[in-house]
Amino acid sequence: MRRPRRRSRALAAGVVAAAMVGLAGCGAGPTGPPTLNWYINPDDGGQAEIAARCTAASGGAYQIEVSTLPNDAAEQRQQLVRRLAANDSSIDIMSIDPPYIPEFAEAGFLAPIPEDVARRSTAGVVNSAIEGSTWRGRLVTVPFWANTQLFWYRKSMIAGSGLDPTRPVTWDQLVAAAQRKGSQLAAQGDRGESLTVWLNALIESGGGKIVTNPSPDDPKAVGLGLDSPAARKSAEIMKAVSGVAGPGFSTADEEVNANAYQDGSAMFTVLWPSSLWGKVKSAVEEGSAPASLLADTGWGEYPRTDAARPSAPPYGGINLGVGRFSPNPDLAYRATECITSPANQAYYFVANGNPAVKESVYSDPEVLKEFPMAPVIRQSLDQAAPRPQTAYYAEISESLQRNYHPTAAIDPSTVGPATAALIRAVLAKEKLL
Asked: What is the CATH number of the domain that holds 276?
């Protein structure tokens, strides 16, 4: 009876040993390249294509998977903030709207950019994109693509308006020309982020600033320039434009503006290139607009607030941040350099209509063929000014939208001081939005 027991023990030991060898073999096997999760803003598929390109170009060093954020920029911010506040390690790369970059940096949500990556990522990049990626004197995100607004006009409607569109124009001149011709000047009058974009561009073009001191360490000490001559002039312009902007101006967004321009209701508008030129081209190709509309469309520098001062057009776009809790920050920054390569920026410009941050892209033949106004876009991006760079941007923008809307009802002499008082009360937690 003893011999069988010895044989059973030996057999059991052999089974356990074999199992351990099998487990060890599984642990030592290849697991594939690390996956980098890139949280993107919605587009026409360009970022997913670039992710696939960079995955292939990495030679097996990493693979990029994309996750799409909500359509609205404020909702994108909210989702990312919630995840990062919980130390979410699944966020390797994120596409961030520039106004929220200071907030992310102050909260410690961004992995530091290696100096060599920062140097390469800003070489040959337009000024506004570098400024919009910087906080407290340091580059905190990688410039990906930049956007700006141009002045667009219908050539066939200019005659008799008293306006020379080949020279820089002022908002006052545009209002007068629209009145003279009985036409509209389309601008974004709805209560939303586009209203903040417009107000900021007006004030910056006039030599002022909405936020004069960001004071990231003390919200109660934030300096505001809403009672400056530039701010008062800007409020006057907004009120005057509401008189020639057509019915429904208080709810007019970019889509409404593009439609008004396309159907001839508006002889002038200010819009991002993809929102106007891309829409016009698509309409002509689909046959819903005459082919002559392309030749009838002219463009130029964003209108001036002050005739003696070059305009400071809106700056928009997307920058790339690497999550502070990513397990692969070095690989993530390596991937951002692939994503923002000149070849990928040129592709994204042509395919999705999003202008590049690299100056060299603006001489690319395919870019010039698709966007003949590319040289004006590049010049405008050098002049463009970011929205207020502050860790409290969300509160400031919402306060501006509350008091400056509707523009027809504002009092230019009081709206600035009243809004400054509201912002101070909100930052002091004395009022809620």
From this structure: 3.40.190.10
